[in-house]
Write a structure and sequence with these properties.
With 398 residues, the protein is of the alpha+beta class. The chain folds into 2 domains: 1-157, Elastase, domain 1; 172-364, Neutral Protease Domain 2 (Neutral Protease, domain 2, Orthogonal Bundle). The chain has 13 helices and 10 strands. The protein has a 6-stranded mixed β-sheet with strand order 1-5-6-4-2-3, with helices on one face. It has a two-stranded antiparallel ribbon with strand order 7-8. The structure holds zinc ion.
């Protein structure tokens, strides 16, 4: 266990810091309170240990609790359960419905049984703290603040936020991407990918129809058309006089290097996630149709084939390999993946521009020796990865 609990929070530290500098004293107060509570939580290593039972399988059953504006999860009261009546509380019902939509998405689209793949129960906590401008996943529970009312409204109001947070759970139970530096930025990006896909799935939108924004409903509710992040245009999700501009890069040439500390956003995880986010958007836009179909399946399979230390380059290579395995080597899906990564400054290993177009031309031809060798290489790589994973399991005894 790390010395400090790394919570998966929706509000990046850079945003809270800018809120602290606001000339609006109420915004400053909300940011300070949120930072203090978050700092306290990070030091509270017992948060997860206090709920051993929560990890038990529960057929994805939802339970929503009301913290009544305190920071105590154990003393929160039951607001809604799977078989119980509707709550009189709007936030509780909204959290309940959206937890359900996210659970159903994973079940119906990827045949995944809840967050851990084994029917993990979903526990949501609403009205956490007072004017808490954040929402977080602590590995067991999903916790929502009410927001300060100006920069953030009630965090239960955004399906992309909830799916983003639960997405951290899916990553934790698959690749287990370490939450710092490039693996952390990939972890953040996967959550945005899930967040956007669940949002689009719930709305029935194609990649072209969607706005690709994360948290549009809850971030600066008074300002239209902005959000916490934009997968389509990282760096352009918000631009206000008060806070300046969204700092996300959309290309490797703008990669942000920061310290591996909370203040440094664990190596700029909420910044650099813009790069793989853009790659996913370009892939989905190029393939067309629904993002959760080919693009989402390629990313999900690549996530499952990744490990805790996977970096951008390896992940790009894996999505390319998976696209070939799922939809054919040199097919339009694989070509879309290749071009998307190239657009953000990452060249898939061993594939030059010339090779890619040659492959496209020879796609579907029987007996192409290059395709056969590639397919064999993929099989060997997968096999060695599985062997390595098995060895890891044996050595850790887990
Ligand atoms: Zn996150």
């Amino acid at each position: 266990m790390t010395s400090e609990l790394r919570l998966n929070c929706i509000t990046p530290p850079y945003l809270l810091k800018r809120m602290l500098k606001s000339d609006d004293s109420e915004v400053r107060q909300a940011a300070l309170n949120t930072l203090l509570t978050t700092a306290h939580l990070r030091g509270e290593r017992s948060v997860q240990a206090a709920f051993p039972g929560a990890a038990a399988p529960g057929n994805g059953r939802r339970t929503v609790y009301d913290c009544r504006n305190t920071t105590s999860l154990p003393f929160a009261i039951l607001a809604r359960s799977e078989d119980g009546p509707e709550s009189t509380d709007v936030s509780a019902n909204r959290a309940f419905d959206t937890l359900g939509k996210t659970r159903d998405f994973f079940q119906q689209v990827y045949a995944r049984d809840s967050i851990d793949g084994h029917g993990m129960r979903l526990d949501g906590y609403v009205h956490y703290d007072y004017e808490f401008a954040n929402a977080f996943w602590n590995g067991r529970q999903m916790v929502f603040g009410d927001g300060d009312g100006r920069i953030f409204s009630d965090l239960t109001g955004s399906i992309s936020v909830i799916a983003h947070e639960l997405g951290h759970g899916v990553t934790e139970h698959t690749a287990g991407l370490e939450y710092h530096n490039q693996s952390g930025a990939l972890n953040e990006s996967m959550s945005d990918v899930f967040g956007a896909m669940v949002d689009q799935w719930a709305l029935g939108q194609t990649a072209e129809q969607a706005d690709w924004l994360i948290g549009r409903e809850v971030f600066t509710p008074h300002i239209e058309a902005d959000a916490l992040r934009s997968m389509k245009a990282p760096g352009h999700a918000w631009n206000t006089e008060k806070f300046g501009k969204d700092p996300q890069p959309d290309h490797m040439s703008k990669y942000v290097n920061m310290p591996d500390t909370y203040e440094g956003d664990w190596g700029a995880v909420h910044y650099n996630s813009g790069i793989p986010n853009k790659a996913f958007y370009v892939t989905a836009a190029t393939i067309g149709g629904y993002s959760w179909e080919a693009p989402g399946l390629i990313w999900y399979e690549a996530l499952k084939a990744s490990n805790s230390e996977t970096r951008f380059q390896e992940f790009a290579d894996t999505t390319y390999r998976k696209a070939g395995q799922l939809y054919g080597t040199g097919g339009s899906e694989q070509t879309a993946v290749l071009r998307a990564w190239r657009e953000v400054g990452i060249s898939v290993t061993g594939v030059s521009t010339g090779l890619a177009s040659a492959q496209t031309r020879t796609a579907g031809q029987n007996g192409d020796p290059f395709t056969a060798v590639r397919a064999l290489t993929v099989q060997v790589q997968d096999l060695s990865r599985e062997v390595a994973a098995l060895k890891g399991r044996v050595s850790t005894g887990g």
